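Bug #77: duplicate submission created two jobs. Keeping one. Sequence:
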Amino acid sequence: MVYDARVTRDDVERILGEMITAQEAKLLTLARRLVSHLTPEDLLNPHDFVPLVESAEFNYEDGILAGLRAARAALRASCRTA
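Kept job's structure:
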């Protein structure tokens, strides 16, 4: 079997998308343990919910999501300038 190590920007975009989707689901599950009635839209403003603000675990996972989104934005920006 021959392994082709070439990865395209589309591959990276797809992988980042999958990682973001998984992290969003993980974050929503965690948030709902803290505030049971949360919706995905509520996570756009987590500072509106004191239990989320006070949770180190939530803030860590939210930071992971922010990093993944930033990586995707950087990839997309580099595609426009290349």
